[in-house]
Fold each of these.
Amino acid sequence: MFISNAYAAAPAAATPDWTSFLPLIVIFVLFWFMLIRPQMKQAKEQRKMIEALQKGDEVVTTGGVAGKIVKVGDSFVALEIAPEVVVQVQKHTVQTLLPKGTLKSL
């Protein structure tokens, strides 16, 4: 009576277009080159360093313990952190390989 009928507009034909996905593709590429790739490279270098550990190397663990390797096992290394004080730590906790003679300067 006082209110007229409202009719819906005809639906627009939605054509999927590759340009609508372009921002997502660009974000993924940036994410890959800025975050994922450098992290994979760093993890690979860490694995190589852990595999190359040998007796006499001076290292620092993730907990901050600095010591000299006296024995290398399959999954553990023995660190001499003070004269006559040897602790066993897991290999994957070794974070940094120090240059020779660093422990004497500490």
Amino acid sequence: MSDEMTGGCQCGRIRYAVTIDNDDAYLCHCRMCQRATGGVSIAFRNVPRAAVRWLTAEPDYYRSSPIAQRGFCAACGTPLTFRFDEGENIDLTVGSFDDPSRFVPRHHFGAESLHAAWIDTGKLERYRCDQNPGLVDRWTKATGGMPA
């Protein structure tokens, strides 16, 4: 079943809609993705380029290698895409979707750079943002309450 899903950057300058036909996503651990995001991996959803509609503005792009470009918002810095120069598909960052909960990681890519300690985190304690009094106080003073 195909659904239209939406997403965009943190500041809202760049918004997109995309037709999604399954829940598949993947984690990329390659060193280029690690450096581009500052994280140990990034979650991507691969889609046909033709399935993506840029609603407000297209991403800004930078050439991350001789064979690919990464899309991002120049205003807020949100990583949005990865695309090879040639090919019909594009990767959208799972975290940029308005509802990323639909997606399920199906494989790891760039496994040569995978940091195993960051994969098996099921036994770590979990804290909610609203359980941190300092964070709640900062948000309340700035905006009157916690963000949705």
